User: Which sequence fits this backbone?
């Protein structure tokens, strides 16, 4: 029996991966004079924040000013979502309503900071659906370590085996699988490999397809 559902956020609930890539590519070209391909961006999906500076320095050299790049991206994202809102994935509200109707507890397990996550959830008007929230600030070890999902299940008061985990990234699926939850992948920009598929209870095209 499923008693809990743990959601990832970016790329799963919100169509923010596409938006983030668009903004980052524009900033790279305008402010740094370099190209940033979609394939390069895909390699950042699901990474912990501490892993990003060395990744970009490997791409663009040790002199690359990651802090300036990150600050520009953050400001661009805030400006866009202040004006246009957070782009929401199809089926999100219907799924959340269905889980609430079935009295299934709902948690968030995101690699985003608490401040940024709460801002996005409030803008999207979904904050009140969540019984518990686990953010990057709340764990010592981020995805793919199982800690985020283990903590989410613990806070919900349910066994990991009684929870589904909804994810779009490889690191997220590995985290949920190693925590003993039932991983369900809804791919965003990256399609699952055979290895990732074997870890999933199911792979869906959209949130609309999930039926409990």
Assistant:
């Amino acid at each position: 029996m499923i008693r809990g559902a743990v959601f990832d956020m970016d790329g799963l609930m919100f169509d923010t991966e596409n938006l983030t890539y668009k903004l980052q590519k524009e900033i790279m070209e305008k402010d740094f004079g370099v190209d940033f391909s979609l394939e390069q961006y895909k390699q950042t999906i699901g990474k912990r924040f501490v892993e990003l500076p060395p990744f970009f320095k490997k791409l663009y050299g040790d002199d690359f000013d990651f802090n300036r790049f990150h600050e520009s991206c953050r400001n661009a994202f805030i400006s866009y979502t202040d004006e246009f809102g957070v782009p929401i994935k199809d089926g999100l509200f219907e799924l959340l309503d269905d889980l609430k109707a079935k009295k299934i507890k709902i948690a968030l397990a995101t690699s985003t900071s608490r401040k940024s996550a709460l801002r996005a959830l409030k803008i999207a008007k979904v904050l009140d659906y969540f019984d518990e929230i686990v953010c990057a600030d709340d764990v010592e070890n981020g995805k793919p370590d199982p800690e985020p999902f283990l903590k989410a299940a613990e806070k919900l008061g349910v066994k990991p085996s009684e929870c589904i985990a909804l994810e779009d990234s490889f690191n997220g699926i590995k985290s949920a699988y190693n925590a003993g939850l039932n991983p369900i992948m809804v791919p965003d920009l990256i399609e699952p490999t055979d290895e990732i598929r074997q870890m999933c209870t199911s792979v869906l095209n959209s949130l609309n397809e999930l039926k409990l």
User: Anything to note?
Assistant: The longest helix spans residues 66-84. The chain is about 45% helix and 10% strand.
